[in-house]
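Reading is simple: the token line describes the chain's fold. The lines below illustrate.

. . .
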Amino acid sequence: MDQTARPPTATPPAAAGAYEASLSRSIGVGGNILITLSSISPASSVFILGGSALALFGTGVFWAFLIAGVVSILIAFCYAELASAYPVAGGDYSLVSRALGPAFGVATFFISLISLPLIIAVFALGVADYLGVAIHGLSPQQTALVVVVITTVTACFDIRTNAWLTGVFLGVEMAALALLTVLGFVHMERPLSSLLSPEVLDPATGQLAPLAISGLMLAVTQGIFAYNGYGGAVYFAEETKNAAHSIAKAVIWSAVITVATELVPLIAIMVGARSQTELFGSSLPVEAFLTERAGHAVAMVVMLSIALAVINAIIAITLQAGRLLYAAARDRALPGTVAAPLQAVSTKGRVPVLATVVMGAIAFAACFVPLDILLTATGSTLMFTYLFIALAAIHHRRGGTARPGYRMPLWPLAPGICIAALGLVFVVTLLDPEQWLSLGISLGLVAAGFVYFALYLRPRRNTHLLLLDAAPEETR
């Protein structure tokens, strides 16, 4: 891996109206989708978030994850339209900055700057749980530190290598989801119509009872979180061929595949379990179903494949994190002395190596933070990111910033429903005192972003936060 850095440009070429083409435009729609799906990790979402939802909400998971899937695809429409108009590296930060305004963009940057490395740490701390089925006595923290180092180094390889590598790992976890689906539908114990009435295990009686509307709303929020990550395709816009036309496809297909590969196995588990009361009463429902239908040996192999899926997700999220910091440095959203080295790319692979390493180092340090604190710190950030994306999609059309490219269907239904759904999530969060600290941290990050913009960036608007277009695409 060639880590020789290109000298960073002192000031982005404002006269040209576009950035210099620094990243390697070498992956197609398929490669982008592979990396994006890897960051979502549908298999680990089913086993961890889906399993938790089954225990808490029973058959309510069917309606909740179906509703969450519709909301997620509508949010994907917003991402797709914005990314088609602004095919610039940097993900949510870049889209919001250009379509909604730099103040909101900087607030989004603050959210992503903290949440991405913390999410990496959360995933890394969970790897030992799955490797533990074969290697006993693993320390979660020591395992996490090793995983973060390995994945950060891997993320510094060129984008095509990472697309191939994450694609191989993704195939393994998709095979695990296919196995769950087949086991459930081959051994159906009840019809699909049994899922239409949401029921949850009543601890007092040990029997199924109707799920309250409030519980269903909570389940929808968990479903939205489980599907999250399809917007990650935008981070690789400057490395995707013909991005102005293809990046929208990458976002939408990532969302559709994610919803299908998570919802269908969960349905199969609910109709294929011998006893729903035992399934919902298990501490690990998905693992319990797998052991029941396939045996302990197969379950162990699948658990190891989930460990690979989690590591794969960490690689993909580290790739995104590096491009976030690189894009912000290139925009001069950071002080000049900090921004200059962070916008450098390697000569051979054209990868933002230093920016990737810095984000990996933050994730490494976060592994020393207790897991419950990490979960609290990242719990509500998604709500604000999606809100800003929906508002950016509206302003993109109505504020005179609309450009040629993909146009979402049924405008303005998608952003309108997204905002309404996020309002519901906000209300549910406010009603749960256990979520107040998480909400407070997210609000603090947003406020810090606005303050940083007002006090530091706005007075320097002639030299900082220069939001230029993507470079013209060249054929390689």
